Amino acid sequence: MKLLSTLLLVLVGLFAYAKAQSCQNADIYKHDVEDYTDLLQSLIDKASATNQHALLLKPGRFGLRGKDPIVLKPGVSLQGNTDDPTIFTTLSDPKSNESATIQVPAASMGWSIQGIVFDNVNIDIQPHKNPAVAKIENNVFLNGGRGAIVSNFGMNLLIDSNVFLRDQAHAGTEFIPKYNTTNAGVVFETQENSMITNNIFGMDLRKLGDVLPHVPAELQTSLRKVQYLLTCAELELEDQQGFLASGVQLYHTNEITIKSNIMNATFPDTIRIAQDHAISVVGISNYLANTAVMIYVANHADFMQVDNTVVYNNFLYRFLDHNVDPAEPHLAGWLYEGITFYDFWTARLNNTIRPPIWNSSVPISPFAHQVVITGNRFGAAPGIDPNVISLGNLDPTQAMIDGKNCYVSPPLVPELGSKIPLLWRQTYKADAAAPFGGKIPQVFKFRESRKLIQRVPEDLRHLPVPAYWKGFTLRNNTVPMLSPESPCFQ
Ligand SMILES: *[C@@H]1O[C@H](CO)[C@@H](O)[C@H](O)[C@H]1NC(C)=O
Ligand SMILES: *[C@@H]1O[C@H](CO)[C@@H](O)[C@H](O)[C@H]1NC(C)=O
Ligand SMILES: *[C@@H]1O[C@H](CO)[C@@H](O)[C@H](O)[C@H]1NC(C)=O
Ligand SMILES: *[C@@H]1O[C@H](CO)[C@@H](O)[C@H](O)[C@H]1NC(C)=O
Ligand SMILES: *[C@@H]1O[C@H](CO)[C@@H](O)[C@H](O)[C@H]1NC(C)=O
Ligand SMILES: *[C@@H]1O[C@H](CO)[C@@H](O)[C@H](O)[C@H]1NC(C)=O
Prior knowledge:
This is Right handed beta helix domain-containing protein. Residues 1-20 form the signal peptide. This protein is mainly β. The protein has five helices and 36 strands. The longest helix has 15 residues, at 217-231. The N and C termini lie far apart (67 Å). The structure holds 2-acetamido-2-deoxy-beta-D-glucopyranose (NAG) (6 copies). The site of one 2-acetamido-2-deoxy-beta-D-glucopyranose has 8 residues, from helix 4.
């Protein structure tokens, strides 16, 4: 009872202060975690019954049982302590590592959960149609079951300035994870009109100090909480915290914006985990912006259409060499190129797609219309051939790709200038090789439109490049990251 707060009425609209680290009060984190499940629930119930808007939580570590969820009653928001962290820790049996859950019922409107450390505790948002925006901001999620934040049949959610960490013991185990079996940061099913911005998904904790100066102030407050956990609360966290099946996993979503997040797998490619995607989208109408990720459209789930896809203004940097190639048989591009549209033709030809998928509904050529690829820049570390744009077996007349996709480092084919070659159906030139042994795509005549920028949504045309790339050094600290604003190679 003594550690958790009394109730206070506050205005929600909280500001983040950059505070100097002090371990003065850290003793409160160093004793056995007690069970606060019933107390927290009763405080929430009381706040809801008396129309108090926010529960201001004290610093400390508060145990929550894994079985029944804590229910965030209507009208109540949760606010972690802004000086020293409020930590919710699961009390689950280590034999199962089951997460505890804060459940947000449909009747909650305009709620927020801010500034809390969730130690294998997740947030589960129940189906609803609330017009008011709900916010999950400035939290730190350690592990957290199949999703640190799970929302289905919902809308109007803002997930901003959070840090999602996951260690190897809590990595996913399913080969092809599904909604119920994934181990992701954010999982949406049939979600609409929501934003996932300025978050970190996966991090090597030894590099926290490199990244911290280059992220926005709001995200710095979340990173400082992680620092506090390590240096003051002395929580034993593994260095490698990138074992997410997906940073963001979306099923059947509409109008989701994923913008300016940092997503890093953190561990050597020789460690295999289930799926290991940054963003996995099964569905339509989502916006990925300022998100330097490898993008491919895979029709795993019998989704046949990849219509209206815009791939604009991404920076893709290749820095891994053949030491980290996957085991034979090499997929040699049909799955892994800079911008890749899954190549059903080659995959089927070589019989490497698992039968239940392509037997059921996937046609030889996936239906794709209005695919726009413009303004993307590719680079490669010295001694490595850069990537190409692989169209799989899309119908070339539906792909709109202009010469504004360019190399910023020496090009694959010098005669083409900095223009990035297009690969179609894995057809390479017979007797030619790139400077470092790579294969060179055959030239196909594709439609080129001069006004592709008009097909990029207006509000995504002039996004600033976030500074956080400065916190990264690649290939085990041997290759400095290039500026995403590097000009096309001359
Ligand atoms: C639970 O997590 C701990 C570390 O936090 C790990 O050592 C243990 O293997 C995990 N158990 C299971 C069943 O995953
Ligand atoms: C997930 O599991 C629950 C309970 O087992 C089930 O009711 C639900 O249909 C499942 N959802 C999906 C998308 O598989
Ligand atoms: C990002 O991941 C790489 C491995 O892919 C790792 O070497 C690096 O330390 C990570 N950086 C951060 C900031 O997590
Ligand atoms: C597909 O199979 C053919 C013939 O067996 C082989 O030459 C080619 O390299 C394979 N392609 C891929 C991408 O595995
Ligand atoms: C897929 O099709 C092949 C040949 O048409 C058939 O032999 C196989 O049983 C089918 N597999 C499934 C899972 O339906
Ligand atoms: C990274 O470099 C360190 C020394 O700088 C070395 O000990 C370690 O083995 C390297 N890791 C990999 C994956 O190459």
